[in-house]
Design brief:
Oligomer: single chain
Shape: elongated
Largest sheet: 9 strands, mixed
Radius of gyration: 32 Å
Strand content: 15-25%
Number of helices: 20
């Protein structure tokens, strides 16, 4: 189906291309590009060789094509007129600067080319009998595209005096800059292993590629699928790329093209390669790696792609309102709305809805900025990174405990704990509504759930505005139900009348908060050990002491309560700041799994001919634990794995692990859970849904 869709899109693109070619050429004042001929000299000697260039400047948003345009398009060409004083042989081949990726339909149609400006140098051999002047008159013929493609032509000319050589410094400098962007010879060796799909392009280079460098292959022909990802592995001797062959693609004598290398903090460079058939070079495929964001100029999403991701995030935010860890906090807001609606204060109700929405949006905006800061510092951020930080987990557990105490009624408004997040959330008026939104977002962050894994994974490496936009869309989805309830009077009548039930329900919701705190303590134990859990329980005791001693008035009592609160949060956070080492330095493996995951382990098992199932999980991932209890750790699934000799590997992401983070990024996931299924003999896995069922997993194992 995907190939049919791609073929249809290509056919439509081709139809549009030729339809536009049938139209009259655009007049000069309607062109989308300016073309001119420039030269490094204003005066030349007979018989010498100099550089001239076709300089093209495109309107914003428009682009032209590389020598291989990709799935659709045509490269520019320079056609000499009969009025030129030189023969065609006097001009050398056009030099093609390093191109960038031009996504047309994300994942389906990919082109290669240039935007803004491009300068194509050509060597000009001045005729030996030239005298007076050399006149170059030509037509620049090119296809320029935005949402549509338009063929354009431009008359260009250049007159060079014949005599004492004279430099044209500005033009010469510009030509020199763009010649430097033309890919040069590769100083290493290249091989292509096309024995099975996907093919492996192995690039051996003394000393390897720069650390963190991403590599992309641009073919001269059409042997490979242009829009397909090119998963990368690296090693001390170079790098390897997995290339998806085109439907009719096959390697002839060799695979030829260029590689683009994007190293952090450096300008991209290109190299021409010729890959002969052969086995993968040793030391070029040791570790899975994902190119830095922006490699190959593919970091930016199209508007359609960004809107699609924002839509998924919005739906995910709506679903967050149903998550168990968020419901208790939302009950605080709902109970307040019941009281406001019963009092007939429609204006106050609308204001509360707006302030609550503001609190949620501010919190998700701050989360996006923190993710961007972590990404800037480390190169990649995964969703849930905050739960890999033991002090943060300890503080969150204490906040959940404090909120539970408030819901149970152990302290009221104005008590010593009113300066905490839960107290602020419980206040009336605008500030209470705002901080209820903040608390809902904070509690909801660990419960983003499996329905947002792919969408957030796609946006994690995007430019900052795209990341912020998607997170704000998720926050707006979370806030929307209460916002609508606040502004639609007819819905106010659906709210129940206040009564004793409100206090009972409020107390009931304290127990999910206590359970959430207990779950966070189990996460803390994995991160920092039993000692950190003990200090956090001591902090909970200090919170209880602050509530008890702060119930009665008095300066000394209030001071003691404040001191106890500070100690309750500060000491556990400090004591949890040292992670607990894993026993024996090895990652733990649950009883239902065979071994810990690593790229080398997967390769070894696949070489044995065994199918492989990989569970990317973490103790702080609620949906991971649900999948384990309902599917992975059940008798039916374990029996199916045993019958088919499936190797069950676990990648435990409870603590930070750069290798696991790289694999998540490589597979386009923002965090765990992630499940990979390698059928026997496969080289690339199938990425399974984040919500598993026994029928789904057993069906894969049995080939159904």
């Amino acid at each position: 189906m995907i190939r049919i869709y791609r073929a249809l899109m290509l056919a439509l693109a081709g139809f549009g291309l030729f339809a536009f070619m049938a139209l009259a050429q655009s007049p000069d004042d309607a062109r989308r590009a300016e073309a001119e001929l420039i030269s490094e000299r204003t005066s030349v000697l007979p018989g010498e060789t100099v550089f001239i260039a076709l300089r093209m400047t495109m309107d914003p948003g428009w682009h032209i094509y590389w020598r291989n345009a990709g799935d659709a398009g045509l490269p520019p060409q320079l056609i000499l007129k009969e009025t030129a004083s030189i023969a065609d042989e006097a001009l050398g081949e056009m030099m093609w600067p390093l191109p960038k990726l031009l996504p047309v339909v994300d994942g389906e149609i990919m082109d290669y080319g240039y935007d803004d400006e491009a300068v194509f140098a050509l060597a000009l051999t001045v005729p030996a009998d030239a005298a007076g002047e050399v006149r170059i008159e030509a037509v620049a013929d090119y296809l320029i595209c935005e949402a549509v493609c338009i063929p354009e032509t431009a008359d260009v000319s250049l007159v060079l005096a014949v005599g004492e050589p004279a430099e044209n410094v500005p033009a010469g400098d510009l030509i020199g800059v763009w010649i430097a962007k033309v890919p040069g010879p590769f100083e290493g060796e290249a091989r292509i292993d096309d024995a099975a799909a996907p093919w492996t392009l192995s690039l051996s280079l003394a000393g390897g590629f720069p650390q963190g460098a991403g590599v992309r292959f641009f073919p001269f022909e059409h042997e490979i699928s242009h829009p397909a990802d090119q998963p990368q592995r690296v090693g001390p001797s170079g790098a390897s790329l997995l290339l998806t062959p085109d439907r009719a693609g096959k390697v002839g004598e060799a695979l030829e093209g260029i590689i683009r290398v994007d190293a952090p903090g450096a300008e991209p460079v290109g190299y021409v390669i010729r890959a002969e058939r052969g086995e993968v070079f040793d030391g070029t495929a040791d570790t899975a790696f994902v190119p830095v964001a922006g490699a190959g100029e593919m970091a930016g999403l199209s508007w359609q792609g960004l809107l699609s991701l924002a839509g998924f995030a919005f739906l995910g935010g709506l679903i967050l309102n149903l998550m168990p860890c968020v419901l208790p906090v939302l009950s605080m807001k709902a109970l307040g709305m019941v009281s406001a609606a019963a009092g007939g204060h429609a204006g106050e109700l609308r204001a509360h809805g707006l302030w609550y929405t503001s609190g949620v949006l501010v919190s998700f905006g701050v989360l996006a900025l923190v993710i961007l800061a972590v990404r800037q510092a480390t190169g990649f951020a995964t969703l849930g990174f905050q739960l890999q930080h033991a002090p943060t987990v300890a503080v969150l557990a204490l906040i959940m405990f404090a909120v539970g105490l408030w819901l149970m009624g152990f302290f009221e408004l104005g008590a010593s704990i009113t300066n905490t997040g839960s107290g602020l959330a419980g206040r009336g008026g605008a500030m209470g509504a705002f901080f209820t939104g903040v608390l809902a977002a904070v509690v909801g962050a660990p419960c983003v759930g499996p329905f947002l894994g792919a969408a957030l994974g796609a946006v994690m490496s995007q430019p900052a505005p795209a990341v912020v936009a998607v997170f704000l869309a998720m926050g707006f989805g979370m806030a929307l139900p209460f916002l609508v309830l606040s502004f639609v009077p007819v819905l106010h009548r659906l709210l129940p009348k206040p009564g004793k039930w409100m206090n009972t329900l409020k107390q009931f919701f304290a127990f999910p908060m206590f359970l959430t705190a207990a779950w966070l303590l189990s996460v803390l134990a994995d991160l920092a050990g039993a000692g950190a859990v003990g200090w956090t329980l001591a902090g909970a005791t200090a919170i209880g002491f602050a509530v008890w001693i702060g119930r009665e008035a008095g300066l000394m009592r209030r001071g003691a309560a404040i001191a106890a609160l500070i100690a309750a949060f500060a000491l556990p956070a400090v004591q949890a700041n040292v992670p607990a080492p894993r026993a024996g330095g090895e990652p733990s493996v649950p009883a239902y799994a065979e071994a810990a995951w690593s790229p080398a382990q997967v390769d070894a098992l696949l070489a044995e001919g065994r199918p492989v199932f990989v569970d990317f999980t973490a103790s702080w991932c609620a949906s991971c634990q649900v999948n384990k209890l309902t599917t992975l750790d059940t008798k039916r699934v374990k029996a199916a794995f045993e019958a088919a000799d499936v190797a069950f590997l676990v990648a435990d992401f409870t603590q930070k692990d750069p290798v696991i983070a790289d694999e998540l990024k490589r597979r386009g996931r923002a965090g765990v859970p992630m499940y990979l299924w390698y059928p026997a003999g496969a080289r690339e896995p199938e990425i399974l849904p984040e919500l598993l069922t026994q029928e789904l997993v057993i069906g894969l194992v049995e080939g159904r």
